[in-house]
Amino acid sequence: MNVLAILKDFTFRCKSVFENTTTKMSKRFLNWLILTIRTVALIPGKVNFTRLSRYGGRTAKTFASNFKTSVDWMKVNIGMAQDCFGPADDMAVAIDPSFISKAGRLTYGIGRFWSGVAQRVKRGLEIMAIGAISLSKHTCVMLGAVQSPNFKTLESEKQMSMLDWYVALVRSKATELLSLTDILVADTFFSKYEFVNEVIGMGFRFVGRLRANSYLRYLAIPDSSAPRRRGRKKKYGEKVDFSNLDMSVLTSFIYEDSKGNKTRCHTAVVHSRALKRDIRIVVCPVENAEPLLYFSTDTDMRSEKIIGFYRTRFQIEFGIRDAKQFTGLQSQQTRDRERLDFAFNLSFTALNVCKEVIRKDYPDLSVAQFKRLMFESYLASTIISTCGKSPHLKIIQKINHRLAQLAA
């Protein structure tokens, strides 16, 4: 493997990503953006303006000022998702709020948000991450991130709850997301009437999970032999008892996951009192625990796809984890709203380009290994480029200072 070629391969892929999109930006800004994405991908440790300046060859002030520029990240990343997955793949859009650790009092959006890792409310920031998942490739391309306002801002300025804000966010991105797929996947928190009803009105089919104590009813089966009576016909049957399922209504099937594990599951179309609509439910029994209840608002969707889409949804959480570990999602050196938005989306886009290069050119490498080789390639090219300088005292002092910075 040619270590020096990795940096060139990354730059080439990054240029091709922006050439294949219709996002308008000046050539000067595009060159800077490609340099910044490459720098984010190779920096070891934290990614902030100081370290971007050290490895990117531009001043920290240049990076800070350009971070206020508006970029249509969603369009760029949708182009990468279409190139990665192809039209024949079963795709869905996944959404997932994520806690971002951040100190300070003047940072935009600072507040108390739920942290899934700590399993408690913590002070910091929250972003709504949006990704495209594929059943066949079992991976996720991050489409973008939008920062959530804190609860005080929502209540005082917008008179809305956090769930209302999530609905408004999906509505603002609906046109772009529907161009990719009409299936939306989210976790149990979003399985509420206020959210599900709104996204269905936008044109999505929703896939999610219900709590084990959800109130579901079988649909009434018409009895042709029963005598005719006055009044409305019965619409629903008995409540679904998950400890004693009515197997005359449910259909059993064997679900095999990507690891080859097989589970006998049961499916039927039932009525959800909370969602106020008929849904297709898939019951997956768990030994010595409550069953897992997956559902789709599309009653004609195959049961295997319902389980597959929801379980593949976890790939977006892996994308968030990788962005925090490798592309500086959680190490922003700013408190400005526009710069924070730029930093969050830059982190996801840099991660997407890394995975794209790995997928096409270096399939045997992990993201951590690829990032390490990126840094080694940068270090080697920097040393080689400085070796040809004339032995002038001031030039040697600059070279020593430059190499000392790299070693810091």
Q: Would you give an account of this structure?
A:
With 408 residues, this protein is α+β, with helices and mostly antiparallel strands. The chain has 2 domains: 3-186 and 314-373, no CATH class; 210-222 and 233-302, no CATH class. Helices cover 44% and strands 23% of the residues. It has 13 helices and 12 strands. The chain has helices at residues 3-19, 27-42, 49-56, 60-66, 73-85, 151-158, 162-178, 193-202, 303-312, 314-326, 337-361, 367-387, 393-407; strands spanning 91-101, 111-115, 120-134, 139-147, 183-185, 205-210, 216-219, 236-239, 251-256, 262-272, 277-286, 289-296. Strands 1, 2, 3, 4, 5, 6, 7, 8, 9, 10, 11 and 12 form a 12-stranded mixed beta sheet that branches. Strand 5, helix 8 (193-202) and strand 6 (205-210) form a beta-alpha-beta unit. Helix 1 crosses helix 2 and helix 1 packs across helix 11 (337-361). The chain is elongated. The two termini are 27 Å apart.
SSE layout:
Elements: H1 3-19, H2 27-42, H3 49-56, H4 60-66, H5 73-85, E1 91-101, E2 111-115, E3 120-134, E4 139-147, H6 151-158, H7 162-178, E5 183-185, H8 193-202, E6 205-210, E7 216-219, E8 236-239, E9 251-256, E10 262-272, E11 277-286, E12 289-296, H9 303-312, H10 314-326, H11 337-361, H12 367-387, H13 393-407
GO molecular function, one term: DNA binding
GO biological process, one term: DNA transposition
Domain Transposase IS4-like: 180-352
